[in-house]
Structure formats: C-alpha cells, structure tokens
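Ticket #4471: structure output looks truncated?

Reporter: J.K.
Steps to reproduce: submitted the chain below (136 residues) through the standard prediction queue, then opened the result file.
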Amino acid sequence: MRIFILLITLTFSCFADETLWVTNLDEPIKAIKKSIDPSKQSQTDLTISHNNLAFLYNAKLKILYAEVVASLKTHEEISVLKKEQTEWLNSRTKKFSAISKESGSMAPMLAAIEHIKITKARILVLKKRNYVVGRF
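Returned output as attached by the reporter:
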C-alpha cells in the first residue's frame, strides 16, 4: 500500500512540475551548427554532425507534435492530424531512403541534410496553423 501511495505521489509530482520542465533544443542545435566547418572536419565528422542535427530537429518536431495533439479538442481532430503526420512521415522516409541509396561517399551526409530540411519545413507547417500549444 505504501509503495502504491508513493507511486501516485511521485506521478502527480511529475505532472505538477511538468510546466517547469522545458525542453529547449535550440541551444544544442546552434552549437552543432557552429561547430560544422567543412575546411576543418573530415567527411565522416561532417556526416555525424548533420546526423546529430537531424536527430535534434526530429526531437523538436516530436515535442511540437505532442503539444499540438494535446491541444486538440476532439478525437476527430486528433485522428485527422495523426493520419496527416503518418503520411508525412512515410513521405519523408521515402525521400530520405532514396538519397541514402545513391552511390557515392557523400550520400549519408546529403541524406541527413535533406532530412533536416524536410523536418524543419514540417515544424513550420505545424507552427503556422496557430494551434494553442505551450512552450515550443
């Protein structure tokens, strides 16, 4: 019984503090962008940096998407957005895969750059819809 009460208390504490827990990915994105220097980095290091940026932008999109879903009022709105997001994700995967399969040693880096471009565009689409979201 004590464990159950402790878990409930911890759960409510986590939710209560959630408004104070702000995830800001802009700083690591800026740091990685600043560190990218083709004249001083190997192609492998450049690819790793771009892959890290792609990961961060994907996380940024996931946070925004979760906030948008939470802000929607009806199951129908949520269903429509989920269908749209699934179609968008499938489209992004196809574009990313097509570039990744290209021959040449620069294909992985070019694929990461395209992934970033496509994901940033999706972030802007969701932001421009004037959803009522929290801190993003």
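Triage note (M.O.): checked the attachment and the full token line is present. Residues 43-71 form the longest helix (29 residues).
Status: closed, working as intended.
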